[in-house]
Amino acid sequence: MSRTDSREVWFRRAKENGELLAGMATWYGGKAHGGPTASGLDYDMFTFTAAHRTLPIGTVVKVTDQDNGKSVIVCITDRGPYWRGRIIDLSYAAALQLDLSNRGVGRVNLNVISDEHGTPLNADEAFYVRYSNARDSEMAGPFRAFADAAVLHEALRQAHPEAEVVIGENK
């Protein structure tokens, strides 16, 4: 009898079902900023990361606020939340994008969109960085790995604070 790796189960369910989880999200910052995470990286509350109890470190998740419809793409870099009834702890930057920073807690849907290497689950999809210029919206990409899109996103955020990483069909 062969045992299936739990990561394979998560990713198979994500591909088959699309929407994987729903529940309450919180955010963390302040005291945790600069401290260690389960990934081995220091926590930076101004990047788009999150903590989840069981998803593999490196998995990329789209988080959508059920109340306002806003969404953000984050990389799982830490473990938590450890409060009963919460399914994800977002970085401060991610919470701001969802307008969750003032509320503290919000109902969200989680969609797993990449494996633990940051590669989209759907082979036809890729990551893009969307930002506005003087006339309209621009898209940079495609990026096959989330980390590559995240680097450009960080570089663009000074000049384009509204910039965001999105996932879509690889053109």
Order of helices and strands: HEEEEEHEEEHE
Helix and strand composition category: alpha+beta
Mean pLDDT: 86
Distance between the termini: 42 Å
Rough outline: globular
Unreliable residue runs:
none
Instruction: Please report the total strand number as a whole number.
Output: 9
Q: Report Rg.
A: 16 Å
| Spatial ordering of strands, largest sheet | 1-5-2-4-3-6
Indicate the proportion of strand residues: 35-45%
Portion in helices = 10-25%
Oligomer: single chain
Profile the largest sheet: 6 strands, mixed, barrel
Q: Number of helical runs?
A: 3
List the helices and strands and how they pair.
Elements: H1 6-17, E1 21-28, E2 49-51, E3 60-65, E4 71-78, E5 86-91, H2 92-97, E6 105-112, E7 125-132, E8 137-143, H3 146-156, E9 164-169
Parallel strand pairs: 1-5, 2-4
Antiparallel strand pairs: 1-6, 2-5, 3-4, 3-6, 7-8, 7-9
Keywords:
single chain; 9 strands; 171 residues; alpha+beta; three-stranded antiparallel β-sheet; 17% helix; six-stranded mixed β-barrel
Give a concise summary.
This protein has three helices and nine strands; from the N terminus they run H-E-E-E-E-E-H-E-E-E-H-E. The chain has 171 residues and is of the alpha+beta class. A six-stranded mixed barrel has the order 1-5-2-4-3-6. A three-stranded antiparallel β-sheet has the order 8-7-9, with helices on one face.
